[in-house]
Amino acid sequence: MRDIKFKGKRKDNGEWVYGSYIHCEIDGDSIKPFDSLIQYDVIPETVEVIGNIHDNPEILDGEDKSWQKRLKS
User: Fold this and answer.
1) Looking at the whole model, is its pTM more than 0.85?
2) Exposed/middle/buried for residue 41 (C-beta within 10 Å: 0-12, 13-18, 19+)
3) What is the average per-residue pLDDT within 49-71?
């Protein structure tokens, strides 16, 4: 099983959040960090796949992102 990690900017404060992506037609998009019980609403246009969490280093804002693929809805 592949563990895919996503990132997106939170709606409430604009900070990046990393974890599992959740898409809900009613409540909107959110990301739940792997180590948390809380999920955060995110701006859909900022959601990106950042890869397999076992094979790729964590990508932080400002690092080279040329290999990333935009999540297309």
Assistant:
1) no
2) middle
3) 53
